[in-house]
DNA sequence: GACTCCCGCCAAAGC
DNA sequence: GCTTTGGCGGGAGTC
């Protein structure tokens, strides 16, 4: 009955002939049903509104065809046939087909006839859409709309709408366009030229919004506003808006059936809003080989400028507004191809370092859209850390510690894990591996900088003892975030690894070592050792961050080799430059980090393994308790009692290090004085005393195995001992067999792992202790490094942390 | 009452 | 001139 009502009798008769026996039987049954049932009963037997929804209909439609059809199969779609079989009018089928067409899952062959492609082209299409979405700056548009929504709450006059209209009107991307794939161009001139293909275009743009959004959630309201804004913003009235919303529901139903999106609700200040979340495949915008075909109804830009395709060119040459219906003229093909080839040449430079470093699409190809949050996270952390540092300074300014704040070369900075995780912006992965924090230290002899890497607990310790330090955490949270984000696509993280990641991702667990899960320490390989580029970039980042901190703290002092800002405008200017450079460098560094992480993954290096940048390290002690020196309870809580924790960092170009090594080489770290970190005898005396229990439980029992070669090299390198002179390991640790063989590191790590299973001595029972106290207990001992260098003013110059030596010395440390 | 979206009118485009 | 296609908005069903 429906068919006969919807179609002429002749067509029905022809179709009936083509229909399968099953369909005929269904129809006959229907007719019988209608004849035998009364009107009400028949109505009741009709499917409900829900059962007739477009989404369900689309499900039925999709069920008819395989996701990945083979070429041998008959993949033609006859709209009449489908409409009849699905018992809907053709109008509904058009809605479905249009959306599928926008994703290139179907293509129109002829009148009433389509070809089914399934999901073969889906990834390419999504890549293309993402690229176009990025080019169209949809992210900015979304932000603009959201911002305007917020402003609109306080501004109800009509000026805003005018401003909105102007903004969208000035948008160079305001034309409607359709993204095509090579070989998937619309064959029919009608489709190419018709202006009223907005459902397809809307569908594509809707998808683009998801692909460029972070998180990939788009509210209907925002989507409708953007689509209206691009269409006819002068008609930004309510009816237009409602109509767009209706269409978006149509599209969303189909996309939901394709499991590309999922309906959610976002709760904002003004209430609950319907929205959709992208649940489709992660899209890597690596489309250097994907040729985009963008049709356009207008020609806003000259052809010589970034016209993406011959399609676009032909369309732009013959704008299809009104009744001008042009197909691609053969004479244009040659010209268009030339343009296209040129464009391809330009775009086919994926290895261009400029592209990679400039966070372009190529850059994004390695890291999906969430990578875009990296700068924001970094900024967030820097700001938070800067604030924390200021607070810490304020706190400590009146404390018993006498710290020379007048000339700090390195300013202490709290570690990232101190940042409240809840303050992370939505969609931003919280910092996880926050165990190591580098500090740039200028080398006194070689003009090369050192980086001190501090464990979070050490950060607290250093904060306490030397508040003039500023810890410079690596963008580890960013890296981790990237890793976790990309794990599905890039790293193929196993479930177990994922669990580990979750455990370490939890920022609350990174606050103290006590809360930290036992982390195995194993030095399995130094295959990730040499990453010169990453090292340089890392140093650059550190320098930038130091610069930033220098500005932030407004101390009027700058880190060595950094020119201090002379006035506020210059400072602002430098800040701007810094932010920009920092972002670029951070992203580049993060890539290297992720690459190394991937490599380590491939080489089966445990995720929690200790990594430090290549070069050698002079680590800090990791066992500290802050019961003295007037620490507040809060600070005590922050000072962790890490005993068996190793330091993990997915930093590119890293050396696995175990906790014992850190302890061992910590000694020279404390005595090397490339910094002018002043510590008075008073404060040293006030430093916690290392108890035997600590040594027993962690240093000794956990098989600390000081790497004397590292120690010696370190001392030689910094000029504390002459070349050729070897200094034995710390006598406190001497009962542990010392081996300079690299494998020994692994062995000690294994020991450590075993030890970790034993219950640790309770914090309280250990009493105030810190490994750093080792140095005070054995000052000037024959087997230790020289005593603290005393300054003329009676203070002692110490540095605390893991000293990072440039990589060129690496082979020495491996001795 | 707001949200959701089915339904079908009707005009443009195709043949 | 008939058919196909699809924009559009009323209004019914659902929450």
Summarize the model shown.
This protein has 33 helices and 17 strands. The protein has 815 residues and is of the alpha+beta class. Helix 7 crosses helix 12.
Could you list the spans in which at least 5 consecutive residues all have pLDDT below 50?
1-23, 155-161, 168-176, 186-193, 295-571, 596-708, 727-815
Radius of gyration: 33 Å
Spatial strand arrangement across the major sheet: 9-10-17-12
Strand percentage lies at 5-15%
Relative helix content? 40-55%
Kindly report how far apart the N and C termini lie. Answer: 89 Å
- Can you summarize the main beta sheet? 4 strands, antiparallel
Any descriptors?
47% helix, three-stranded antiparallel sheet, 33 helices, single chain, disordered C terminus, DNA-binding, 815 residues, alpha+beta, disordered N terminus, four-stranded antiparallel sheet
Outline the structure in words:
There is one protein chain. This protein is an alpha+beta fold and 815 residues long. Helices cover 47% and strands 8% of the residues. The protein is built from 33 helices and 17 strands. A hairpin with a 6-residue loop joins strand 9 (437-442) and strand 10 (449-454). Helix 5 runs parallel beside helix 14 (238-257), helix 21 packs across helix 24 (568-602) and helix 26 (659-671) runs parallel beside helix 29 (708-717). It is elongated, with a radius of gyration of 33 Å. Mean pLDDT is 49; it is low at 1-23, 155-161, 168-176, 186-193, 295-571, 596-708 and 727-815. The chain binds a DNA duplex (15 and 15 nucleotides) through residues 8, 11, 48-50, 52-54, 79, 89-92, 94-95, 98, 111-112, 188-191, 193-199, 239, 242-243, 245-247, 249-250, 253, 274, 323, 325.
């Amino acid at each position: 009955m429906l068919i006969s009502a919807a179609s002429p009798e002749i067509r029905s008769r022809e179709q009936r002939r083509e229909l399968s026996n099953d369909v005929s039987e269904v129809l006959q049954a229907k007719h019988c049903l209608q004849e035998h049932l009364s009107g009400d009963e028949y109505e009741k037997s009709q499917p409900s509104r829900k059962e007739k929804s477009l989404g369900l209909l689309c499900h039925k439609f999709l069920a008819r065809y395989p996701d990945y059809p083979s070429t041998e199969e008959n993949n033609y779609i006859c709209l009449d046939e489908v409409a009849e079989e699905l018992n809907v009018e053709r109008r509904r089928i058009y809605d479905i087909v249009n959306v599928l067409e926008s994703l290139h899952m179907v293509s129109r062959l002829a009148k009433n006839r389509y070809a089914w492609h399934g999901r073969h082209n889906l990834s390419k299409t999504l890549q293309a859409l993402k690229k176009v979405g990025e080019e169209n700056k949809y992210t900015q548009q979304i932000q603009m709309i959201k911002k305007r929504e917020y402003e609109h709450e306080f501004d109800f006059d009509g000026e805003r709408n005018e401003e909105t209209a102007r903004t969208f009107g000035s948008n160079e991307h305001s034309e409607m366009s359709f993204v095509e794939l090579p070989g998937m161009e619309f064959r029919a001139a009608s489709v190419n030229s018709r202006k009223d293909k907005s459902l397809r275009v809307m569908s594509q743009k809707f998808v683009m919004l998801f692909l460029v959004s972070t998180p990939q959630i788009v509210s209907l309201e925002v989507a409708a506003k953007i689509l209206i804004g691009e269409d006819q913003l002068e008609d930004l009235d309510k009816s237009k808006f409602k109509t767009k919303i209706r269409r978006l529901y149509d599209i969303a139903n189909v996309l939901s059936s394709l499991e590309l999106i999922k309906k959610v609700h976002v709760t904002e200040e003004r209430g609950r809003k319907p929205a959709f979340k992208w649940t489709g495949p992660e899209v890597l915008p690596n489309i250097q080989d994907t040729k985009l075909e963008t049709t356009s109804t207008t020609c806003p830009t000259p052809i010589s400028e970034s016209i993406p395709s011959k399609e676009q060119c032909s369309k732009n040459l013959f704008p299809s507004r009104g009744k001008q219906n042009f197909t691609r003229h053969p004479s244009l093909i040659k010209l268009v191809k030339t343009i296209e080839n040129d464009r391809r040449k330009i775009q086919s430079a994926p290895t261009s370092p400029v592209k990679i470093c400039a966070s372009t699409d190529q850059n994004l190809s390695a890291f999906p859209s969430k990578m875009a949050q990296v700068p924001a996270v970094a900024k967030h952390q820097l700001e938070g850390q800067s604030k924390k540092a200021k607070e810490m300074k304020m706190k400590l300014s009146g404390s018993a510690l006498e710290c020379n704040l007048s000339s700090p070369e390195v300013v202490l900075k709290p570690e990232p894990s101190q940042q409240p995780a809840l303050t992370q912006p939505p969609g931003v992965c919280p910092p996880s591996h926050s165990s190591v924090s580098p500090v740039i230290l200028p080398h006194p002899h070689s003009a090369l900088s050192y980086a001190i890497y501090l464990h979070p607990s050490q950060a607290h310790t250093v904060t306490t003892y030397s508040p003039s330090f500023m810890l410079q955490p690596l963008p580890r949270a960013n890296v981790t975030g990237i890793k976790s984000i990309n794990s599905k696509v890039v790293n193929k993280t196993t479930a177990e690894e994922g669990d580990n990641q979750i455990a370490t991702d939890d920022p609350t667990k990174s606050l103290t070592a006590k809360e930290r899960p036992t982390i195995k320490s194993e030095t399995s390989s130094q295959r990730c050792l040499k990453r010169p580029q990453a090292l340089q970039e890392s140093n650059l980042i550190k320098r930038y961050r130091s610069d930033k901190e220098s500005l932030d703290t407004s101390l009027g002092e700058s880190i060595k080799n950094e020119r201090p800002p002379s006035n506020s405008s210059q400072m602002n200017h430098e800040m701007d430059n810094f932010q920009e450079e920092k972002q670029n460098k951070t992203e580049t560094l993060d890539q290297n980090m992720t690459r190394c992480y991937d490599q380590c993954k491939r080489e089966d290096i445990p995720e929690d393994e200790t990594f430090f940048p290549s070069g050698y390290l002079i680590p800090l002690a990791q066992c500290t308790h802050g019961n003295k020196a007037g620490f507040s309870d809060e600070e005590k809580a922050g000072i962790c009692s890490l005993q068996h924790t190793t330091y993990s960092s997915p930093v590119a170009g890293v050396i696995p290090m175990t906790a014992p090594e850190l302890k061992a080489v910590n000694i020279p770290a404390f005595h090397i004085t490339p910094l002018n970190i002043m510590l008075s005898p008073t404060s040293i005396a006030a430093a916690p005393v290392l108890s035997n229990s600590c040594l027993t439980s962690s240093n000794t029992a956990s098989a600390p195995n000081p790497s004397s070669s590292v120690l010696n090299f370190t001392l030689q390198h910094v000029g504390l001992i002459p070349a050729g002179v070897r200094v034995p390991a710390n006598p406190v640790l001497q009962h542990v067999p010392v081996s300079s063989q690299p494998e020994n590191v692994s062995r000690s790590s294994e020991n450590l792992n075993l030890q970790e299973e034993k219950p640790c001595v309770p914090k309280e029972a250990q009493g105030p202790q810190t490994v750093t106290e080792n140095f005070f207990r054995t000052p000037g001992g024959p087997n230790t490094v020289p005593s603290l260098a005393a300054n003329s003013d009676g203070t002692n110059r110490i540095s605390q942390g893991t000293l990072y030596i440039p990589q060129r010395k690496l082979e020495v440390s491996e001795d």
